[in-house]
Design brief:
about 190 residues; alpha/beta; 7-stranded mixed β-sheet; 7 strands; about 35% helix
Length: about 190
């Protein structure tokens, strides 16, 4: 699997700026890819559910990597936990998922480099509004591309969410080139809407 550098930047931010919002919390990672971010968060004490779409051809690798990482998480002594599940985006994909039958609410949703494909924005949004409810807080990071911010326009049009950009000075690029235009947002449901 590919390790997107933005996920390292997000991990660093979560670990250094908001660790108390992560430690001991139920964290859902959308589009986990290789699982690096989720495994690291579990080692920091979060109870992480990594998810990947079956159509991405990485689900089996993610599940194997998470199974192998169980020992690493236990040895960290953080009290965290980790698992991997299939979650295809969109309402139909959510309904077919184990998440729908569990009815668990998550404290935190993390998303790294998910808005690069404009064709997936609608299905990602349908999934996001199902999992980011109540007192949940979401952290999204991506390298800006011409269409990437369109997902946030759709989220705005959906209503019910407050989106706060993270100040450029609060984002440590960890050696990434400044012209990468890394953007990070904190997203919260408006309590009156959910």
């Amino acid at each position: 699997g590919v390790l997107w550098k933005a996920s390292l930047v997000l991990l660093h931010y979560l670990e250094t700026k908001v660790l108390e919002q992560i430690k001991g919390k139920r964290v859902l990672e959308l589009g986990s890819g290789s699982g690096h971010l989720g495994i690291s968060l579990a080692c920091l004490g979060a109870h992480v559910t990594c998810t990947e779409r079956k159509e991405m051809q990485t689900l089996e690798r993610l599940q194997a990597r998470v199974e192998t990482a169980q020992r690493q998480v236990e040895e960290s002594g953080s009290g965290g936990s980790i698992r991997a599940l299939e979650l295809s985006w969109g309402e139909a994909g959510f309904q077919r998922s184990q998440l729908a039958s569990e009815g668990v609410s998550y404290d935190v949703v993390v998303m790294s480099e998910l808005v690069y494909d404009e064709d997936s924005h609608d299905e990602l949004l349908e999934t996001f509004v199902r999992v980011c409810t109540g007192g949940c807080v979401a952290f999204s990071i991506f390298c800006d591309r011409p269409w990437s911010q369109m997902w946030f326009v759709k989220l705005h049009d959906e209503g019910g969410y407050a989106v706060q950009p993270v100040a450029e000075g609060d984002i440590d690029l960890l050696g990434m080139q400044p012209d990468a235009k890394v953007l990070m947002h904190v997203i919260r449901p408006n309590r009156s809407s959910n």
